[in-house]
Design goal:
This protein has about 300 residues and is an alpha/beta fold. It has a domain at about 5-165 and about 205-230 and about 275-290: NAD(P)-binding Rossmann-like Domain (Rossmann fold, 3-Layer(aba) Sandwich). About 40% of the residues lie in helices and about 15% in strands.
Length: about 300
Amino acid sequence: MVQMRLLVIGGGGQLGTKIIEQARDRFELYATYLTRRPLLNEPNLFQVDKTDRTVILALFQKLRPEVVVDTAALHSVDYCETHKNEARLANVEGTKNVAKACRDHNARMIFISTDYVFDGIQGSYTEDDDTNPVNYYGVTKLEGERGVAQICSNHVIARPSVIYSYVSSARRESSSGKPVNFAIWLTQKMKSNESVKIVEDQHSSPTFADNLAEALLELAKSDKTGIYHTAGKTRLSRYEFAVKIAQKLDFDQRLITPVKTGQLRQVAKRPMDSSLSVEKIDRDLGLRMLAVDEALDRFREQFTSGEQE
C-alpha cells in the first residue's frame, strides 16, 4: 500500500512531536525544524526557516508532499506584542510561503491557528462567528488564516486552544525560551511544592496535544476544507484547569491561588473567554475532541510513566 507523503513544518515543537509519533507508521513522513530536532530519522529531516521562501520552494520541489501540516509559529503572546516585525514575518509571511508552495505543488495544507483570533467577549465560539483579535499574536494568526484561504484552495484551518501534553524533561523548554506548556509548568512547580497564582477570569478550551494530533491526521486524509475548531470539549478558567490537574495528579491544590487578570500585568491583552465549540468537526468527520477529565486521565498516565524513567 502506497503511503501518503506528509510534511510537518515545525516538527520539533510540542504539537509537531505528537504528530510525528502518530504519523510515523501511517505516512511517508518528513519534517522541518528550526532549532529543536524532531524525533525522526536524519534522511527525512530538514533544518528550514519557513520565512525563507526560496528554501521552502526548493524543499517542496525535492519532496513533493501530498499533505503539509504547518505548526511552526512564534507562539509567545507577550513576545509578539513587543516584537511585531518578527511576529509578522513568522506568522504571516512564513505561512504564506508555505501556502504558495502547497498551491504550486497541489499539496493539501493544514494550518494550525488559535482561539486568540477571537476577542473573548462571547465564548464558545463556532467557526462562523466573527473574529476580532485583541493582541498582536492573534492579529498575525488571523492574517495567516486569511493568507492560507486566499492562496491555497485545498486547505484546512485548525483552531486549538491552550495546547498541553506530557513532555519529557529533555524537551521542556520551547524554542522561544518559555515553558513548553501550561500543564508541564504547573506540575513542575507543584512537584517542588511551590505556590502559584493562576488567573480565574480567563476561560478557554484546553486541548490535549495527542488528541489534537489525532484530529489533524484525520483531517489530512479527508477531503474537507475550511475552518475547524480542534480544541478540548470542556470550557474552563485557567484556575479551574490548574485545580483539575492538581487533583488528577494528587498534588496539593492549596498551592494554587486564584487571581484576576489585572493582577498579572501581562504585556499583551488576553481574550477573557476564547473557548471554542467543537460540534462541527464531530458532525462532519465523526472526530471526538476529548473532555478535560478524559484528556487528563491520559496525561496522568504519561506523566506517571515519564517521571519514573
